[in-house]
Structure formats: C-alpha cells, structure tokens
Description:
Blueprint: E1 2-7, E2 12-17, H1 26-29, H2 37-41, E3 45-49, H3 65-91, E4 96-101, H4 103-114, E5 121-125, H5 148-151, H6 155-160, H7 166-171, E6 175-181, H8 187-199, E7 203-209, H9 216-226, H10 243-246, E8 249-252
Parallel strand pairs: 2-3, 2-4, 4-5, 5-6, 6-7
Antiparallel strand pairs: 1-3, 1-8
Amino acid sequence: MELLVFGHPGGVRVLVFPTRGGRFYDYEDWGLVAAQAEPLAWWRRQLYCLDSVDHESLYALHLSPAERLARHRAYEAYVREEVIPLTERISGNGPLWTHGCSLGAYHAVNFALRHPGLCSRAVGLSGRYNLTEAVGNYPALLDPQADADTYFQTPPWFIRGMPEGESLRRLRALHVWLGVGDEDVFAASNHELATTLRQKGLRCDLELWPGEAHRARYWRPALARGMGDGARSRTVPASRGVGPSRIPQRAWA
Length: 253
C-alpha cells in the first residue's frame, strides 16, 4: 500500500489515518500538512499518511460483520507489522503518535488504545468510537451482539472493562486528545469515550467546537492544540524551508 511521508526524520512519528474510504494524499490536499509547517520544518515531527481499506472492511456492508472485522484486523496488522517498522527505518525510535479525522479518528484512537505502551499520543478529530451504533445517517458497522472481536474493537467497551494491571498502567502514559463539533452527531460518542478514559485514570482532553464543524477547515486550526504546539510562532526558519513542500516522500509498506 502507498503512503506519503512529510517532514524530517528524528522527531515524533505520527501515523495519520485517512477519513472514511480516503486516500493517503487527502490529508495534504486539505491543507492539514501545511497547517503543521513549523513543527515539520523544525525537525520536530514526521507525518506518515496512510491509505485506507474501509470499503473492503468496515464499510463493505455487503459482507458479514465477521468478514468486515477480519479485513479490518488485517489492516491493523499491516500498520503494526509493516508501517511502524518502516517509520523506524526512516526516523528511528522516537515517540509514536496516531492521528485521524472522522473515521480516521476511530482508527487512530482505537489503534493506540489496543496497543498499550506503543503510542504516547492519539489525536482524534470529529470521530465516533462505538461503531456498533447507528448515528444519524451513519449505519452501524459492527454487530453489538457479536463475539469478543467486536468488544475489543469498541474503545469505550474494552477500556471500561479493562482490569487494573500492566496494560492499564501503560495506557496511563498515553495522552488522548479529542475534538468535535458540539452539534456533530458524533459528539455524544466523544463524551462517552472521554468519560470512560478519565474514569480509568487515563489522560484525555476533549475540545468542543461550535456547530457541526465536521470539515477540514475546522480541523486545521485545531491541530496546533491537539498536537501540543500551543500558540508557538508559525515562523519557519528560512534555511530549512517548509517541511511539507521540501519532502514529501512517497513510500510503499
């Protein structure tokens, strides 16, 4: 599968999951790479923009839930076994973050929570985190009556049921940052996940935006806060140029 790499090696590695059925180049096309020009140029961050298989997995509604989950698990294995080793070869063993918007937010947060100790930050924008429920015009993608596979792909469920132990201890080192419009149909899902994480002692920030706000123009300004850049100056050092326009690399994993 193809992916795009932006930024310089040696800093934080960010796995960027695309929106529903999206492609690896959408994130750049929507201006979300340019919105991070400073940390990319200052060698603080490297983005790995992934491709999706949503129309073969979660949104392959002609398949049974079990078949959709099997394809989803294969995609998760691809990220774990092929993409992450690629990031290590390119950028070393710096901190690993996950990030996504809309359905990509589900992928990003679910992946980080399912692999305790692997990621140190997960940033989900306009996501929904319980795919067993139909919400608005969005159908249920997983069967709520199914087996443990569904349970362990539904973050509010498996986090709520996670006992005290090593996995939970490792997850408490993870910072989850969620942002969603207060009129988005997924707002309740964000509140549910944030409440569940906090009850388990995990660090979770939830930022609400006015209106539905389920568009890239709302995601771009939220990135500085979600990625922890705060109000840093957006001045880019002239000698290094702007990361996203200087690289990108197209790679295969």
